[in-house]
Amino acid sequence: VTDSFLAKWLDQKITLNASEKAALRKLESNQRRIRRGSLLLRENEPTGELYILREGWVFSFMILHDGSRQILRQYFPGDMLGLGGLTFAESNESLIAVTDSVVGVFDKPLLANILAEHPRLGPLFFLLAQAERAIANDRLAAIGRTTAKARVGALLLNMLDRLRMLDPTISNSFSLPLTQEEIGDSVGLTAVHVNRMMRALDEDGLIKRSGNMLHIRDEARLIRISNYVNRLAALDMGWLAKG
Amino acid sequence: VTDSFLAKWLDQKITLNASEKAALRKLESNQRRIRRGSLLLRENEPTGELYILREGWVFSFMILHDGSRQILRQYFPGDMLGLGGLTFAESNESLIAVTDSVVGVFDKPLLANILAEHPRLGPLFFLLAQAERAIANDRLAAIGRTTAKARVGALLLNMLDRLRMLDPTISNSFSLPLTQEEIGDSVGLTAVHVNRMMRALDEDGLIKRSGNMLHIRDEARLIRISNYVNRLAALDMGWLAKG
DNA sequence: CGACCGTTTGAGTGCGGTCAAAAGAAGTGG
DNA sequence: CCACTTCTTTTGACCGCACTCAAACGGTCG
What we know:
The structure is a homodimer. The first copy, chain A, is α+β, with helices and mostly antiparallel strands. Chain A is built from nine helices and eleven strands. Chain A has a four-stranded antiparallel beta sheet. In chain A, a hairpin with a 5-residue loop joins β4 and β5.
């Protein structure tokens, strides 16, 4: 068993002791390989499984009654997935792998044990959930109140910032494995209109596309027109515990 | 100091012991009265204050760069407010009282102490946060992928269900203190279009308005056309701890 | 090489926005 | 209690952003 990806990520924000790291490692010890395009979890099916993503891209989504899809969130290595199942017997979200991925699989009883044995982890997970909520708020505001171009721009910037946290050598380019339809389902647009907006961003000199590589050419201006804020930069959890 | 409203709400889901109840009571012991329309917390201002709502209605919102407003969430008695300040030095949301309200005020150090002394509360708060996330997902999908009429309908139904949890005697009517502009800012519409949708719902026989009283006339049909799901009904946190 | 999937482009439509104004409701001060 | 202001709701006319439908193009995999 290699190191815990969740621990690596948390450890940037708060110092974990050896026993806590060991506990988190346990959550990732049972690993599973996921093929690109396959479902990890299906909406409205009872499940006790929870996951920590170790490699690859995953996203969660809901299907509405008219058949349309809303993508809720993109997940990257270190993220916990399937948390909808924590409070509801049936999850209200599905999980699908965008690229070949590796997850650590665990269940509720194991999580309950670990939380009981390591009293700092519960509060820490609570904080993490609040940080996610703040980011979800930005997405809500973007979808509810900004133009199509801004929504696409904000999504691209958010993905770039997430990837930068994982790999500081990334500067302004990354491989974007999402189709334009998936981008549309993420920000509440149709694939056709996403295409027009991407081309517009391209013609404005804000981004550059070649293959599935995406290059942000003028990040400052893209941030401005997209009404984007990088919340991750200001995350502070140090006040929680000094142990 | 009367009973804790947060404890009353949590106690429906998981059994709290006397010492935990006392701890939660402490969070609400420092009470403050808020006038209708006044700001409890301002976006982008550093703050250490956190709140538990005891009486009244509060909502949180963000202002975008073009001046438009997105209302993020309606809060009811028993809810914790201002959690954006937990992980960020500056909150990314503002809080405003819709009606005269009473909140319990506490700060991060007190919360940190209570979480450290009561090891079940951290995990419990974590679960609560996940439940909120699931509900936020529904709202995201509604705004991203449903029609104006469905969005308004889903908001009304959600408020009804929240109120029912607080007062089981409520059947199909409640006093709605939000203006149509505030409803619009909640679901990503203009006040003018909210008005048209409310009138349409009225003419369809789904709702009935008189003054600021709202009556749901055909709940089943409104649920259907709004693509609404009441997540609160299926909340399950019992697996967490048997202590 | 064909089948399939994703991207690109065009033409036309409609949902929700904008602008404007009137009517009603609710505070506010004298 | 009334006069006045301000806020909220309602209605109409028009506009435009994003959707729909459709077809062509390009890449990729078997």
